[in-house]
Amino acid sequence: MFVLLYDRQHQHKPLTPLSFFKLLADETRLNALLLIMAEQELCVCELTTALQDTQPKISRHLAILRKAAVLLDRRQGQWVYYRLNPTLAPWAQACLKQTAVAQQPFLAPLQANLAAMGDRPTRDSQCCRE
User: Fold this and answer.
1) Residue 62 CB: number of other CB atoms within 10 A?
2) Residue 5 DSSP label
3) What is the pLDDT of residues 45-98, one digit of tens each?
4) pLDDT at 12
5) How far apart are CA 130 and CA 125, in angstroms?
6) What is the pLDDT of residue 82?
7) Which has the closest alpha carbon to 11: 64, 68, 65?
8) CA–CA distance, 63 with 57 (Å, rounded to integer)
9) Which long-range contacts (CB under 8 A, 24 or more apart) does 23-28 make?
10) DSSP characters for 36-85?
11) What whole-number distance in Å separates Cα of residue 125 and Cα of residue 52?
């Protein structure tokens, strides 16, 4: 007799306003999300440069956002790219858009860091820009 085990680690809990706002309460996660929204897709090395933080810290926060199904990832060669989940609840998307407008003065220096980055990884054009 075989028994199927319920794998809680790979099951997503529904995103509630409370859980979403808890995700946004961390500055690194919030800024990473807003930068990803602005650029449509970024890899860890780009976020590390923009946020001027360590790769392990950025990766940890991206994993939290991916586990919550706020972000999706894809691998292209040695790079892993992150983008906003297009099935994210409309209320959450609207919240992020409004936050991006309000946060623009704080995001501008981060975007300048990203723009000054040399050797940014190249993307397959059909993969990330819609």
Assistant:
1) 24
2) P
3) 999 999 999 999 999 999 999 999 999 999 988 889 999 999 999 999 999 999
4) 60
5) 9
6) 97
7) 68
8) 10
9) 23/64, 23/65, 23/68, 23/70, 24/95, 24/99, 26/61, 28/53, 28/57, 28/58, 28/61
10) HHHHS-EEHHHHHHHHT--HHHHHHHHHHHHHTTSEEEEEETTEEEEEE-
11) 27
What confidence tier does 122 reach under pLDDT thresholds 50, 70, 90? confident
How far apart, in whole angstroms, are the C-alpha atoms of residue 112 and residue 52? Answer: 12
Residue type, 69: A
Paired strand residues for 43:
81
φ and ψ at residue 8, rounded to 5 degrees: -65, -30
Cβ–Cβ under 8 Å, residues 98 and 83: no
Whole-number pLDDT of residue 125: 53
Residues in the chain: 130
